[in-house]
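Slide 14.
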Amino acid sequence: MPTSDERVDLHFPKAQKLCGEKAIGLLFEKGEAFSKYPFRVVYLPLPELREGEAAVRMLVSVGKKRFKRAVKRNRVKRQTREAWRKAKHAVEQAVGASDKFRGLHVAFIFCGDGLPKTADVERSVAKAAARLASAITAPAQ
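Slide 15: predicted structure.
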């Protein structure tokens, strides 16, 4: 937990949102994945960053197959982004402390049934963030 002098940045600016066909295609082509219900998490550690790019960038995907109504899809995306905003500092610290990686792209793909409760989403995203942080800091085999 940070001290009173060290403030954790809880913002989620546009620079931290993963967009662009090339970046997303590379993430799904070469990235690694794991499941943390109700999400499938795909991530790609990056050895270098482009100029002005945020160290950790993420995207959320909720399929139309799960929820036909856009209102429900947007609700799940909003819950996920909010949970990530609160839990991302552990991943950012791991990337910052890593000698091998300079950045990370992450995708959260919703795979659950029904509308999740906010507490469940926050718990799952926090566990996924902890796993991402440990994957970044773990030595290569």
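Speaker note: The longest strand covers residues 39-46.
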